[in-house]
Amino acid sequence: MSADSLALAEGLREFYLKAHRLLDQAMKREGISFARLKLLLFIHRSGSVRATDIADFFGHAPRTVTEAVDGLEREGLVARVPDPNDRRAKNIRITEAGNAIILQAEPVRDYWMKRVFSALEPAEYALMLDIFDRLRAHMEMIASDLPEPEDVAGCSPGFLGDPARR
Predict the structure, then answer these.
(1) Helices 34-46 and 96-117: crossing angle, nearest 10°?
(2) Are residues 71 and 107 in the same domain?
């Protein structure tokens, strides 16, 4: 990775982490963490969703999702309901209490996002959206063609090829 690419990746990572921490602090004042709000919003937007779909979307282990959903269910924010297509499976849906949390927290989240991005001029905002769209599309393209560790110049197959080190 070139020094410029590395600096850009590090800058993006640092921005994301700082923005996430800021939002988490603001959300905690509303009684919910930002992570839990994101989970509630995903379930709300999906209507009814399986835990495997949540795990796939967020890139979490199924056990992690189960624990998070268990906590939301204990608080009455989500409910497990039978899957109409698979009698062995359960879907997760938002409850009225979960909807109330979203209605309470979304304006706070929107307020802070507007404050964070108020540093940008409208043209810069539009440019960033375009850049992120292009990067997302490019990542989808290259993700379908990932090389084997031994095919990457300067990569030691013994290091990346070892599943214990991934």
Answers:
(1) 120
(2) yes
